[in-house]
Design a protein that fits this description.
This protein folds into six domains: 125 residues, Rossmann fold (3-Layer(aba) Sandwich), CATH 3.40.50.140; 155 residues, Topoisomerase I, domain 2; 130 residues, Topoisomerase I, domain 3, CATH 2.70.20.10; 126 residues, Topoisomerase I, domain 4 (Orthogonal Bundle); 36 residues, no CATH class; 94 residues, no CATH class. Helix content is 33%, strand content 23%. The strands form nine sheets. It has a six-stranded antiparallel barrel. The radius of gyration is 30 Å and the shape is globular. The N and C termini lie far apart (72 Å).
Length: 707
C-alpha cells in the first residue's frame, strides 16, 4: 500500500509523482470538489451564515474514485495549492474522505522542484482554519452580494447582469475615468524647441524654452510663440549655468502577482488571464528536455517580495559567472513588501535561478517561454548592481530668455544590461550632451515653435487598472484576472485596443449602483471590507461577525432600494451605427446577442431587419478575390473569412495584411507561432517572408535630435 497525495491539477500531480516515487500515489482533485449550489443562495443567514455545500456537478465519479483510493491507502496527504482556495479545497477533501481535520496531513509546496517537494513533505501541519474561514467568508460574502443584487439588476435593467464587491468597484473606476475624459477641456499651448551644438560639425542636442530669469513663461498661442521667436532670431545662445551630478538607479523588485500581470501586459501584450494561465503551467511543472518534469517558477499568487537565501545565492553565482563581480551590489538588496502583504510565499521567481530561458526554450510553448524569460530576467536583475549615470543640466541664455537642456550618459550599466522595467507612459527625456562649460557659445542649428494641446487622462489598460486596484486595496492578487474577465464578459466594459472602455450598459449599471448601493461601488468601503477579510485570514477577526456586520447594513439598503425603485425600469441607451436599414431607412443600432454584437433595426417589431457587424481588413480572398472580413467564433476567438460566404468557403486564423505577394500579387498573411513572418495562401504560390528582426530593447541612454 502507498500514501495518497492529493493535489489540484494533473500537471502538478505528474511532476510531484516523479519526485516522490514509489510509496506514494499522486492524484488531482481538478480544483474545487464542493461549492455552494448554483441555483440557490446556499447560505443560512439566520443561523450564523451556515453554508450548504454540495458536490460540484460532473465530479461524482472523481469523488467516488478519491474515496476508494483513500480507503485503500496508508494515509491521505492534502497537498493543494498554498493559499486560501487551496486550504479550502483540502478542508473539503478531508470532510469527504473522512480524514481527521486536526491531523498533521497538510503539506504545501512553494515551488515544484525536488527540493521544494522534499521540504514540503518534511513539514506537514494541521489544516489552517483561519485560511479556510477566510475563504468561506469571501465566498459567502460574494454569494450574498451576487445573489441578492443580481435579481435587482435584472428587474431594473436586464437579465444576465451581476454585481460584486470587487467587480462593481472596478467598473466604477473605469466609468469615473471616462467621465473625467468627457469633462476634460483641452487647452492650447506651445513649446519652442531648439537644436544646438557646441561646434558646427558636431551632432546637435535639443533644448526647450523655459522662460526668462524671473521664471517660467507659459506660451498659450501662436501669436505669443511667434513674438518670442522673432526676438530670438538675432539672439546668441550661450551656456549660462551647468549642473552635473551622478544618478544611481536601482532595479525593480522581483514580481508579485499584480506586478507580473502589469509587466506582462506592457511588454508581452498579455491579458491578465493569459498571464496567469502561463504562470500556473510554469509553477505546476513542464517536461524539460534533459531534466524531466519540473516546476520552473515559485507559486504565482503572492504579494510578498521576500526571496530565500538559497535563491539569492544561486542568482548571485550566476551573475558573477556571467557578468563579473562588479555587477553585484556591495550589500545584498532587500525589498520591503507593502504593509498589508501576505508573507506566506516568496516573490515570484525562477525555482532554479541558474536555469536560463534559453536552456528551456525548446521545451516551452511561446507563452510559457516569454513569461518565464520575463520572470527570470526580472529576478536576476533585482539582485544586480545599480545603473550609474552621469547627469548634466544646463541653462542656456538666449538674449533675455532661457532654454534648458538635460541629459545623461551611462557610467555603469549595472542591471540594465539585462532588464529594464516597462512603463505605462514614456517618461524618458534627455540624451547625451556634449562637454558644456559656463560661458560657452553654442551654434543654433534649428529653432521652431510647436503647437500642443493638453490631453485628458488616458483610459485604463489592464496593467493600469490592476495597479489602481492594488493601490486602493481592492481585491487580492488572485482576484484581478477573474475580475477583469467578468466585467468584460458582462459587457460592462469593452476593449478599445489595449484600453478598457465602459459600455452604455456599464455606465447605466454603475449609475444605478451609485444611487442605491453606494457602499458596494465605493472604493474606500471596498478596501476596508478587504482589510476586514484579511483580518479573518490572520486570525484577528471572527468570520461570522464580519459577515453579520456587513449584512446588517446591506439588507437594509437593499430593502430601501427595492421600495425606491418599485415599478421602475431603466433603458440602456442604444449605440447608433452609421448603417442604414435598407428596409425602412432608419439608422441601425448595435445589439448584443448570444454570439456577440450585431446590427438591428430600431423599428422592431415593425421592422425585424438584422445584420452582422463586419470588421473589414485590407486582405483579398485568395480563392475568389472577394473581400476578407474579421469574424468571431462561438468562443469569441477572431478568425478571417471571405465576405462572399457561403458562396466561397475560405477561412483562416491567420490575419491578412496590406502587403502583397511579390510572386503572384495576392494578399500576404501573418504566420502564427514561433516562426512568425508573412506567407502567401494562394494555391500553388508558396511564397514566404521572414519577420524583420526586432530592435534591441533600449536599456540606457536616450535619443538625441536627428537620431
Amino acid at each position: 500500500m502507498s500514501k495518497l497525495v492529493i493535489v489540484e491539477s494533473p500537471a502538478k500531480a505528474k511532476t510531484i509523482q516523479k519526485y516522490l516515487g514509489p510509496g506514494y500515489e499522486v492524484v488531482a482533485s481538478m480544483g474545487h470538489i464542493r461549492d455552494l449550489p448554483k441555483t440557490l443562495l446556499g447560505v443560512d443567514i439566520e443561523h450564523g451564515f451556515k453554508p450548504r455545500y454540495v458536490d460540484i456537478p460532473g465530479k461524482s465519479a472523481l469523488i467516488r474514485q478519491l474515496k476508494s483510493m483513500a480507503a485503500q491507502s496508508d494515509g491521505v496527504i492534502l497537498a493543494t495549492d498554498p493559499d486560501r482556495e487551496g486550504e479550502a479545497i483540502s478542508w473539503h477533501l478531508a470532510g469527504l474522505l473522512g480524514t481527521d481535520t486536526a491531523a498533521e496531513n497538510r503539506v504545501t509546496f512553494n515551488e515544484i522542484t525536488k527540493t521544494g517537494v522534499s521540504q514540503g513533505m518534511a513539514h506537514p501541519r494541521k489544516l489552517d482554519m483561519d485560511l479556510v474561514n477566510a475563504q468561506q467568508a469571501r465566498r459567502i460574502l460574494d454569494r450574498i452580494v451576487g445573489y441578492k443584487l443580481s435579481p435587482f439588476l435584472w428587474k431594473k435593467i436586464r437579465k444576465g447582469l451581476s454585481a460584486g464587491r470587487v467587480q462593481s468597484a472596478a467598473v466604477r473606476i473605469i466609468v469615473d475615468r471616462e467621465k473625467e475624459i468627457r469633462a476634460f477641456v483641452s487647452e492650447e499651448y506651445w513649446s519652442l524647441d531648439a537644436l544646438l551644438s557646441d561646434k558646427p560639425e558636431n551632432r546637435p542636442f535639443p533644448a526647450r524654452f523655459h522662460g526668462d530669469r524671473t521664471g517660467k513663461i507659459k506660451i498659450e498661442n501662436k501669436e505669443k510663440a511667434d513674438a518670442i521667436l522673432a526676438e530670438l532670431q538675432a539672439a546668441a545662445f550661450t551656456v549660462d549655468k551647468v549642473k552635473r551630478g551622478v544618478r544611481q538607479i536601482s532595479p525593480a523588485p522581483p514580481f508579485i502577482t499584480s506586478t507580473m500581470q502589469q509587466e506582462a501586459s506592457r511588454k508581452l501584450g498579455f491579458a491578465a488571464r493569459r498571464t496567469m494561465k502561463a504562470a500556473q503551467e510554469l509553477y505546476e511543472g513542464v517536461e524539460v528536455e534533459g531534466i524531466g518534469a519540473i516546476g520552473l517558477i515559485t507559486y504565482m499568487r503572492t504579494d510578498s517580495l521576500r526571496i530565500s537565501d538559497d535563491a539569492r545565492k544561486e542568482g548571485n553565482a550566476y551573475i558573477q559567472q556571467r557578468y563579473g563581480a562588479r555587477y553585484l551590489p556591495e550589500k545584498p538588496r532587500v525589498f520591503k513588501s507593502r504593509n498589508n502583504a501576505q508573507d506566506a510565499h516568496e516573490a515570484i521567481r525562477p525555482s532554479v535561478p541558474s536555469l536560463t530561458p534559453e536552456q528551456v526554450k525548446g521545451s516551452l510553448t511561446s507563452d510559457q517561454y516569454r513569461l518565464y524569460k520575463l520572470i527570470w530576467e526580472r529576478f536576476i536583475a533585482s539582485l544586480m548592481a545599480n545603473c550609474v549615470q552621469d547627469t548634466c543640466q544646463a541653462d542656456i541664455a538666449a538674449g533675455k530668455y532661457l532654454f534648458k537642456a538635460s541629459g545623461y550618459t551611462v557610467k555603469f550599466e549595472g542591471y540594465t544590461v539585462l532588464y529594464v522595467e516597462g512603463k505605462d507612459e514614456d517618461t524618458e527625456t534627455g540624451g547625451p550632451l556634449p562637454p558644456l562649460e559656463e560661458g560657452m557659445s553654442l551654434v543654433l542649428r534649428d529653432l521652431k515653435g510647436n503647437q500642443h494641446f493638453t490631453q485628458p487622462p488616458p483610459r485604463y489598460t489592464e496593467a493600469t487598472l490592476i495597479k489602481t486596484l492594488e493601490e486602493n486595496g481592492i481585491g487580492r492578487p488572485s482576484t484581478y484576472a477573474p475580475t477583469i474577465g467578468t466585467i468584460l464578459a458582462r459587457e460592462y466594459v469593452e476593449r478599445d485596443g489595449k484600453a478598457l472602455k465602459p459600455t452604455a450598459l456599464g455606465e447605466v449599471t454603475t449609475e444605478l449602483m451609485e444611487e442605491q448601493f453606494p457602499e458596494i461601488v465605493d472604493v474606500d468601503f471596498t478596501a476596508n471590507m478587504e482589510r476586514q477579510l484579511d483580518g479573518v485570514e490572520s486570525g484577528k477577526a471572527d468570520w461570522v461577525k464580519t459577515l453579520d456586520h456587513f449584512y446588517d447594513g446591506f439588507s437594509k439598503t437593499l430593502h430601501k432600494a427595492e421600495e425606491a425603485t418599485s415599478g421602475e425600469r431603466i433603458k440602456v441607451p442604444e449605440v447608433e451605427s452609421d448603417v442604414t436599414c435598407e428596409l425602412c431607412g432608419r439608422k441601425m443600432v448595435v445589439k448584443s446577442g448570444r454570439y456577440g454584437k450585431f446590427l438591428a433595426c430600431p423599428g422592431y417589431p415593425e421592422c425585424k431587419n438584422t445584420k452582422r457587424i463586419v470588421e473589414e481588413t485590407p486582405g483579398v480572398c485568395p480563392k475568389c478575390g472577394g473581400a476578407i472580413v474579421a469574424k468571431k467564433s462561438k468562443k469569441n476567438r477572431k478568425f478571417f473569412g471571405c465576405s462572399r460566404y457561403p458562396q466561397c468557403d475560405f477561412v483562416t486564423w491567420n490575419e491578412p495584411t496590406a502587403e502583397k505577394c511579390p510572386k503572384c500579387g495576392k494578399t500576404l498573411f501573418k504566420k502564427k507561432g514561433r516562426n512568425a513572418g508573412l506567407f502567401c495562401m494562394t494555391e500553388g504560390c508558396g511564397f514566404e517572408k521572414e519577420a524583420a528582426p526586432k530592435k534591441e530593447e533600449k536599456t540606457s541612454g536616450g535619443r538625441v535630435a536627428g537620431e
